[in-house]
Amino acid sequence: VFIVSLIIVLVSFLIARSISAPILMLVAKTQEMSKGNLDIRAEISTRDEIGQLAHSFNENAKALTEQRNALLDKQSEIEQQMEEISMQSETLRTANEEIALRNEELHQNMEEIESQRDDIIQKTIALEQQKEEMAVQAENMKEVNAELAVRNQLLEEQKQQIEIKAQQLKESNQQVEEVLKDLQEKQRIIERSNKDTFASINYAKRIQDAMLPPLEEIRAHLPESFVFYEPKNIVSGDFYWFAQKDDKVFIAAVDCTGHGVPGAFMSVIGHDLLHEIILTEGVTEPDKILNALHQGVRTALKQETSKIRDGMDIALCVIDQKNQVLSFAGAGNPLYYVEQGEMKVIKGNNDCIGGFQKAKKRQFQMHQLPLAQYAPYQNTPQVPRMFYIFSDGFQDQFGGRHDEKFMSKRFRNFLHSISFMPIDLQEQKLKEEFFEWKGKQTQTDDVLVIGFRI
Questions:
Q1: Average pLDDT of every residue of the chain
Q2: Which runs of consecutive H residues, i.e. helices, occur in 301-384?
Q3: How many CB atoms lie within 10 A of CB 52?
Q4: Distance CA 303, CA 353 (A)
Q5: pLDDT score of 252
Q6: Which of the residues 82, 106, 362, 393 has the least number of beta carbons within 10 Å of its own beta carbon?
Q7: pLDDT tier, 108 (very low <50, low <70, confident <90, very high otherwise)
Q8: CB 99 within 8 A of CB 92
């Protein structure tokens, strides 16, 4: 900024100098002309107003020179004529006798003299007019000089203002430099803090990733399955949970309150509670699992006495492989499944896990689907169905041409349209649809979609 300010001052000085120099030269030329030097010329070739003024000055000087030369020629001619008249008068005095004889000739000469006198009078009038024009031009030159003086004064005032602003800029630059030094120091502190924070969050991500079941483990029991998992930040408030105990397979899509670090803390609580309820305590019915999970979250967060209202939405499926029954219970999230080309929905309870509770006791409902009775004809292979459990991140994502939410209806129709595809292709289509819809928009929430075919 200081260098730019110095350059502006120098450029302003050069511009002022380039404007005032030709004006001063033109004033000097005018003063020399006023002393009688009509051969002087202003050597200014610019195309601006000063150049035009110099051109007019040169034209006037040239016209005055020509008029002066014409007057001198006329004066010489008059002097010659006067000499001739004098000689004629002398001749008349010495030749009085010839006067009578030459009266006629003298009369003619007198007529010629009268004619020349008229011409002289006309030329004298023309000279007076030229004199008046020169006086007008001189007055105009005075006005030009006055205008130039005013401009010089304005330029001087502008120069002073520029010098004042330059000083102000210099003082401002010093203040800016001090602020920049302070900001740089604060930035270094923030960078160190961010580095430590990101290191902690990345470590938390490794812990969270270690908690999530490997896809190979899920496919060992549900061969035709996929998990589309896209956290909004480094760590996620969404998580999926899987376990197998005896002849039952447990799979859940969980959406905790918030995302990022707060959501990740909630996911740890949810993961540990599911592990304890199902694998340690042996609860296998999905409605009872959600009831126990609800009480566990409220106890862990002391929600009876604290103001903490965090909780989670969950869609939980229990697959009894021995009896060929799928049991489902949901808190806030439904179960979608496609049977013989038709999309069907099993809604979960509207209440979430944890959070504020008005009723004395919160009970979740269980839904059951027999898996073996849907063979269309006896002694024919069972017709598989495609199941989907998910969080609300995909549906709530803003994007598209009108910057709107994807919405549940569009999401349900899209799942229906890809349900017949192979599992890996379904996951690919989900990713493509999500990122194409999101475009350049910021991701709204964590995204989790689980699909499996039975």
A1: 85
A2: none
A3: 12
A4: 12
A5: 97
A6: 82
A7: confident
A8: yes
Distance CA 309, CA 306 (A): 8
d(CA 210, CA 203): 11
How deeply is 222 buried, as exposed, middle or buried, from its count of CB atoms within 10 A (0-12, 13-18, 19+)? buried
Q: How far apart are CA 331 and CA 349, in angstroms?
A: 5
Confidence of residue 432 (pLDDT cuts 50, 70, 90): very high
| Secondary element (H or E) of residue 327 | strand 325-331
Instruction: Please indicate, yes or no, whether the overall pTM of this predicted structure exceeds 0.85.
Output: no
Chain mean position to CA 398: 21
Contact between 213 and 242 (Cβ < 8 Å): yes
- Return the C-alpha torsion angle 252, 255, 257, 263, nearest 10: 90
Residue 121 half-sphere exposure, CB side, CA atoms within 13 Å?
A: 6
Name the burial class of residue 40, with classes exposed (0-12), middle (13-18) and buried (19+) by CB atoms within 10 angstroms of its CB. middle
- In single-letter form, the type of residue at position 232 comes to K
320 phi and psi, to 5 degrees? -90, 100
Tokens of 145: 């000089």
* C-alpha triplet 320, 326, 331: angle, nearest 5°: 120
User: What token pair was written down for 82?
Assistant: 């006067």
197-255 confidence digits (pLDDT tens): 666 666 567 777 788 999 999 999 999 999 999 999 888 889 999 999 999 999 999 99
Q: Are 311 and 296 in contact (CB under 8 A)?
A: no
The angle at the Cα of 121, spanning 116 to 125, to the nearest 5 degrees, equals 145
Please determine, for residue 380, whether its predicted confidence score (pLDDT) is greater than 60. Answer: no
Which two structure tokens, joined as six digits, stand for 95? 């030749």
- CA 364 – CA 336 distance, rounded (Å): 18
Contact in structure between 227 and 236 (CB atoms under 8 Å):
no
With a CB cutoff of 8 Å and minimum separation 6, the contacts of 143 are none
- Three-state SS string over 223-253 comes to CCEEEEEECCCCCCCEEEEEEEECCEEEEEE
Q: Please classify residue 341 by burial: count the beta carbons closer than 10 Å to its beta carbon, then call 0-12 exposed, 13-18 middle and 19+ buried.
A: exposed
The Cα-based distances of 301 to 292, 295, 297 in angstroms read 14, 10, 6
Distance separating alpha carbons of residues 290 and 407, to the nearest angstrom? 26
Over 60: is that where the pLDDT of 399 sits? yes
